Amino acid sequence: MNRQQITEMVKALGPEVARELVDAASRSAPGRMGRGRATHEGSVYASVANFGAFTKSVIAVGRRTGTGELLEAAKHFGNADTQKAVQLSKFDSAGVLVPIQQSGELIEFLRPEAALLKLGVRTQPFKGELHMGRQTGTSVFKWVGEGETVPRSAPKYGKLVLKAHKGMVLTDISNDLLRTPGVGDAGVGEDIRATVADGLDEAGFNGDGTGAAPKGLFAQLDPTQVFASTGTTAAAYLADIDKAVELPLTAHVRMGTAAWVIHPTRATALMQLKDTGIFIFRQEMLDKGTIRGFPFVMTTRVPVNRIVYSSDWRQFIYGIDEDLILSEHDTRAEHDETTIRAIVKGDFKLRQPKAFSSITYSPEG
C-alpha cells in the first residue's frame, strides 16, 4: 500500500479510528521511542560502563593541548568504540558533545533512572522549537429525522509548542576513578546518568515556568482535576483513589498507559492502611506492583502530600534535545574530586490535561 492509498484510507475512517492510527504511527516513527528500544552495541550510550569510559576519556583529553597528546590520551580509556568516539568528538569552550548513532539513545540511556520515563510518557526529541497539534474538542453526534439536514461538526485542534530550556547538572567524581583507565567506568556512568535523570524529573514534575525553567506537571494540571483528600481513614483513602481514577474517564479521556506516581512515604502509608485489621492495599502493592489495578512508580520528586494518577501518560510530552554536553566544571583538590558538568535541554507539555488527576493531602495527613 503506497502513501496515497494510506491517506485515502485514513480519510474514509471515523475520526477516532484515524486518530488511533496516527498515534500508533507516531509512537513507531523514528525519534518517538517506545519502551526498551536498544541502542547500537558500540554506542557511547550502550551501557553505563561505555558512558563512564567516554566521560573519563574526554576529561583526560580536555586537559591536553596538542593533537598528539589528545590521541594518546584517548588510547588509554575504554574500548576501540569509545576511543573512536572521543577522537571524533567536537571539543569547544562549552565542553564536548556526546555523539549518538541513532535517535532516542539518550532517552533510553536515562530510562532506568528517570521516573517520568518509567511511567511511559511520550518522548519527543527536538531541536530549538517544535510545534505539535492537539485536539481540544470532539465532533458532535446527533440523531436526525427523515428529511432533516445533518449538522456540520468537526474536531477542534490547538497547538503545543516545545521550546528548549537549558539545564545544568553537576556531579562530583573521584579523581582516582577519572585518572585510572578501566577502573570504575560503570560507577562514573551511573553517577552522571542518575544526576541528569533526577534533574529532568525535578523539572518535569515541579518546574514552575519562572525564569529559564520549563513548566512541569503540577504547573499544567487542570484545576478541575485536582482535589483535596477527604481524610486518612480506610474509607477516605478508597473513596479518593476511586475518584482520581474516575475523573479522567468522566472527562472522556481514553484509557491508555495508566499509572500512579507517588512519594515513597505516601506509598508506605497506603501499605500500612488497615480496615478491621486487614491491610487494604499492601498485598496488591507488594505482589502486583499496582494500586487499584494500575501500576505505580515511586519518586521523591513528587511531594509527599500528593498522589497523581493518569489514565494515559502518553498525554505527557517529554521533549528533549539529545545534545548532551559534558565538561570539567571544577577541581575540588581538598577532596581529590572533579566536578563534572552536564548540560541538557528539554521541555514538558500536557497534550490532554484532563488525562491527569491529583489528590492533595494536608501536611499532617
TrEMBL record:
InterPro entries: Phage_capsid, Phage_capsid-like_C
Domain of life of the native organism: Bacteria
SUPFAM superfamilies reported in the protein's UniProt record: Major capsid protein gp5
Gene3D superfamilies: hypothetical protein PF0899 domain (3.30.2320.10), Major capsid protein gp5 (3.30.2400.10)
Name assigned to this protein: Phage capsid protein
Subcellular location(s) of the protein: Virion
Phage capsid-like C-terminal domain: residues covered: 95-358
Organism whose genome encodes this protein: Melittangium boletus DSM 14713
